[in-house]
Amino acid sequence: MVNEYRLKTPLSEEDIRKLDIGDIIYLSGIIVSARDAGHRRALELLNKGEKLPLDLHGLAVYHLGPVVKKINNEWKVIAAGPTTSARLEMYEAEFIEKTGVRMIIGKGGMGTKTADACKKFGAVYTIYPGGVAAVAAKSVKKVIDVYWLDLGIPEAMWVLEVDNFGPLMVTIDSKGKNFYDQIYTEARRRLDKEIYPKLGVT
């Protein structure tokens, strides 16, 4: 059974452990953007024993390269659609472990290392619908801060206040279950048991 939740950051481990794949979340509070360069820099700093500009424990990290505009010396998010998450697979497990983030937001799927980290450290991976970046921006109430602009606007770490940001669908839960793996397994089963025999394929 699919459940719907309204959650707010900072997220507790209890918040996360009750979620299952397929559940829908609307998230409020603080989320932080980080793409490839942002993940890489964060891990480099942490591995040198340095601190990040913001404590990410209990927060959500969004695979986002926002379209922004500066109006009266304040940043406004114009579009906030997700970027493909698979390219972050090489960083995500270590990022979850070392930052304490509880939720990853992106699009597409992520792999075994991320799923294992979600299970071990109490996190989830969620997807936001693609193609609705302008709609996503309406949930961003405020740009609280931005760090690492030297990486470029898409790769900088944007600290955003959001209200009822969603729908976010849980695709990797804290039990390590992966929605996409289940789809693949079921598709494989149907091919082997139903489709291939009818076609005479062995």
Outline the fold blueprint:
Elements: E1 4-8, H1 13-17, E2 24-33, H2 36-47, E3 60-62, E4 67-71, E5 74-79, H3 89-99, E6 103-106, H4 112-121, E7 124-127, H5 133-138, E8 140-147, E9 157-172, H6 179-199
Parallel strand pairs: 1-2, 2-3, 3-6, 6-7
Antiparallel strand pairs: 2-9, 4-5, 7-9, 8-9
Helix pairs in contact: 2-3, 3-4
What is the rounded Rg? 18 Å
Number of helices: 6
CATH architecture: Alpha-Beta Barrel
CATH topology: fumarase
**Alpha-beta content class:** alpha/beta
Per CATH, the superfamily is Fe-S hydro-lyase, tartrate dehydratase beta-type, catalytic domain
Number of domains: 1
Oligomeric description of these chains: single chain
CATH class: Alpha Beta
Question: How would you describe this structure to a colleague?
Answer:
This protein is of the alpha/beta class. The protein has one domain: Fe-S hydro-lyase, tartrate dehydratase beta-type, catalytic domain (fumarase), CATH 3.20.130. The protein is built from six helices and nine strands, in the order βαβαβββαβαβαββα. The strands form two sheets. Strands 2-3-6-7-9 form a five-stranded mixed beta barrel. Strands 4-5 form a two-stranded antiparallel ribbon. Helix 2 packs across helix 3 (89-99) and helix 3 (89-99) packs parallel to helix 4 (112-121). The radius of gyration is 18 Å and the shape is globular. The mean pLDDT is 90.
